[in-house]
């Protein structure tokens, strides 16, 4: 096996200048894409208690199934889609994904019954397959490992902001759009208006994105050369150390173990995303409150404000210390303990404090998690491995809303479902700790080696 070339001479001024240009060029745009993506994926959570469930005759379990069936189609095509992105380039493939999902998302405005809703949610998952792992893979082409968690966090800020901005926006569209066009109910109008931007910005992707640093005409020649050399050297080191082809990356115990850690964080994320509006709507019965749709939207946004702050600060701390495992495990466990407590509080204020702690935990864990698999996967192996981790993790996107809704129907309240959410998140944190009980803060490679060494010694 050939040895990697020596590291390029460190040039702090060049690194700072180039990474600033790359961050300003890519991360805001990618965050906008993910904002639209996540909003189209989860706005059904706001539509449900604001007219859709009543109009289509959905029970809690049926609503949970409609929310979660998206992930069946999504998971089926995750790996093939990411391999296609690696082959054809991010510019073409992400543009294709966005246009196709925008068409399906807008079509949800015209569903006549539950069966059609299930079908379109399934198709939406197929259309979106590969988007998130594709972006994670794309970031590995542009950001060295030492900057990757921060870059991932800036991209993933779209998750909390899709609720901070998206919940009030959805509320306004539902309230103001009722019977505005063609007699559409407010929730139908919301689906239509929120689906169109994906089509438009998908066209923009074709012209705006650059596949690799060597093609970046928006960098100076010496900047392109520096970044290309930096990324090629890093990839050659990873390949020389681990060298996992596609098939092997799909069977690695370390990849599957990390997938189940990610499952726990995603379980909490989607349970909160899909059912928080329903929980807040239930405050009227539980606490005797009277919030209108727009006020409910603002309340829904509050936990994600704190989540956004934790996402940025915690990922920066992870990059600074170069410790990853506890930066995933600790927020997962704290968030898992907090979420079921929310429904035992004696006021909406204290309940939302507990929900906010859960959001802080989820948002803190997610970007730090993605620094782990990209330490030892590269090339087509990274495309397949990242997609597999995202597939297994996002199976929680099907299970979380369905199980939460089913338990709500079975027991008559949300408590049991949120206890399951808490247990799954805590178990994910414990699994991360079991994989690496004593992280070293000074050597990212040593951290990763210790982490994966406890999962299996297949090499």
From TrEMBL:
Keywords: Membrane, Transmembrane, Transmembrane helix, Transport. InterPro entries: MFS, MFS_trans_sf. It is found in: Membrane. The chain crosses the membrane at residues 22-39, 59-77, 93-112, 118-141, 153-174, 186-209, 255-273, 293-313, 325-345, 351-370, 382-404, 416-435. CDD domains: MFS_ExuT_GudP_like (cd17319). The keyword Transmembrane applies. It comes from the Bacteria. The keyword Transmembrane helix applies. It is a multi-pass membrane protein. Pfam families: MFS_1 (PF07690). This is MFS transporter.
């Amino acid at each position: 096996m050939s040895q990697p070339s020596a590291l390029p001479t460190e040039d702090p001024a060049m690194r700072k200048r180039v990474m600033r240009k790359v961050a300003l060029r890519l991360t805001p745009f990618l965050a906008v894409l993910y904002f639209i993506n996540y909003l189209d994926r989860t706005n059904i959570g706001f539509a449900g208690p604001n007219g859709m469930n009543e109009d289509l005759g959905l029970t809690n379990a049926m609503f949970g199934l409609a929310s979660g069936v998206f992930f069946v189609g999504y998971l089926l095509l995750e790996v093939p889609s990411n391999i296609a992105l690696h082959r054809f380039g991010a510019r073409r493939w992400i543009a294709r994904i966005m246009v196709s999902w925008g068409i399906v998302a807008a079509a949800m405005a015209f569903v006549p019954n539950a069966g059609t809703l299930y079908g379109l949610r399934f198709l939406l998952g197929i259309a979106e397959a590969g988007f998130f792992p594709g972006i994670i893979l794309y970031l590995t082409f542009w950001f060295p490992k030492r900057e990757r968690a921060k870059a991932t966090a800036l991209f993933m800020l779209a998750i909390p902001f899709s609720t901070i901005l998206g919940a009030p926006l959805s509320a306004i569209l539902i309230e103001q759009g009722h019977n505005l066009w063609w007699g559409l109910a407010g929730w139908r109008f919301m689906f239509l208006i929120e689906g169109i931007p994906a089509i438009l910005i998908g066209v923009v992707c074709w012209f705006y994105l650059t596949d690799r640093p060597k093609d970046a005409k928006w960098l100076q020649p010496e900047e392109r050369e520096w970044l290309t050399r930096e990324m090629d050297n890093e990839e050659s080191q990873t390949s020389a150390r681990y060298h996992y082809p596609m098939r092997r990356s799909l069977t690695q115990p370390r990849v599957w173990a990390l997938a189940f850690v990610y499952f726990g964080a995603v379980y909490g994320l989607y349970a909160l995303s899909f059912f928080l509006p329903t929980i807040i709507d239930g405050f009227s019965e539980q606490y005797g409150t009277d919030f209108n749709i727009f006020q409910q939207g603002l309340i829904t946004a509050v936990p994600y404000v704190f989540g956004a702050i934790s996402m940025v600060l915690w990922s920066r701390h992870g990059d600074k210390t170069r410790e990853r495992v506890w930066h995933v495990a600790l927020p997962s466990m704290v968030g898992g303990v907090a979420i079921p407590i929310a429904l035992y509080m004696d006021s909406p204020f204290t309940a939302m404090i507990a929900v906010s702690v859960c959001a802080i935990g989820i948002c803190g864990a997610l970007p730090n998690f993605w620094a782990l698999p990209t330490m030892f996967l590269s090339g087509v192996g990274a495309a397949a491995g990242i997609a597999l981790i995202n597939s297994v993790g996002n199976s929680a996107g099907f299970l979380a809303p369905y199980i939460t809704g089913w338990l709500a129907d079975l027991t008559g309240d949300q408590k049991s479902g949120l206890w399951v959410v808490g247990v799954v998140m805590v178990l994910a944190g414990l699994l991360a700790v079991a994989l690496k009980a004593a992280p070293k803060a000074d050597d990212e490679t040593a951290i990763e080696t210790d982490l994966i060494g406890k999962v299996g010694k297949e090499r």
